[in-house]
């Protein structure tokens, strides 16, 4: 079998060289399969169909999720927002202790770009903020949302220490230009901590903290990109706890899925007595109807991403239990079931208020905040208001592959086990070397061990 594969690939590598490399490193690739030929397949560029056909014994591994990369030294941000355009993740604003200045609210929103090809961050030049100019960027904020449509990013809502916003901004990355969108109809009140998703040619915005009403919102709004008009959608008023903020809204197929976040015992008002709801709510745009799913399995907290028609959540906080999380859960709409996943590799530290983006079947999770190591968050009853321990905001980025190819698994095994790469083919050596440099090239930015606290509601 091996000889056939080598002949098919033009003898790009020799069996003896691979055996020598593995023997010198004393590395077991048993998880990738029992045959050395499977290792060779992992290092070649054979199609996924060929890999699945030959590596039948490795199917279990192929079906397992893996943490495959970690990059440090990125932007330190909490309550930020991001989108993916082509091969680049664009991260907009967010809270940062180094830039915390309540006396200067007129700073422009910054943009950090992460290349999924080179695994490197770059910071875009920040223009001057001009409040009344139509091409001015929005002010630096947190608790906003970013949504991609037609190759541009649309920013809605958010706040700083001085004001809250309900304007809609458009950023075109191809010409590096901001524009303020003229919009009409039932424009949502200024808010932060809301959730947003795109469905077809429409942007949907739900909930958040309504600054004008000074209460949590349960409203759902739809913005039609073609018409430039906002519409009020059907209320989800059959169940308690729908007034909430910092939750998630995702599009799967022709439905919208709402999950997570927190409400308040005094709903819709804020009393610092949080309520956490782990039900899943589904909105059908065609029928303009809400439903609540009584899903099977163990429902999680945290935020979500969508990969291959399934919902994934990572991390989060339950202050009543005094716990931060770094677990990964998956919800399958077809089976109406949650499942706790246990990805291989080194997981990120526990955190909340991180951002997750998906590109080519990979989840990129970055930023967020968590307690200092050794300072556990005390559990408290809703009536208690104990001080939270010092928090650390994160600059790391982690890559989760739900179904990584053998090539990726082998590459990461080589780097983790420090396999001598000299015996490997030149193309493979270059790729391994590139991955190693990409994951260590960044200057580690330090913004201080702790940050000044946000208000209780924004923690």
Short description:
The protein has 459 residues and is an alpha+beta fold. The protein has helices spanning 2-8, 15-25, 36-43, 48-54, 59-62, 406-417, 426-438, and strands at residues 66-71, 81-85, 88-92, 111-115, 120-123, 145-149, 152-156, 168-172, 177-180, 184-185, 191-192, 195-199, 202-206, 209-210, 215-216, 220-224, 229-232, 248-252, 255-259, 263-264, 274-275, 280-284, 289-293, 303-307, 310-318, 323-332, 337-341, 355-359, 362-366, 369-371, 391-393, 397-401.
Helix content: 10-25%
- Please identify the top-level CATH class of the largest domain: Mainly Beta
Task: Determine the N-to-C terminus distance.
Answer: 57 Å
Number of domains: 2
CATH topology title of the largest domain: Neuraminidase
Annotated CATH homologous superfamily of the largest domain: Kelch-type beta propeller
Calculate Rg over CA atoms: 24 Å
Could you give the count of β-strands?
Answer: 32
Biggest beta sheet summary: 5 strands, mixed
Amount of beta strand: 25-35%
Instruction: Figure out the total of helices.
Output: 7
Oligomer: single chain
**Biggest sheet: strand arrangement:** 10-17-16-13-12
Q: What best-fitting shape do the alpha-carbon axes yield?
A: globular
Kindly name the structural category: alpha+beta
What does the average pLDDT come to? 79
Give the low-confidence spans.
1-62, 378-386, 440-453
What's the CATH architecture of the largest domain? 6 Propeller
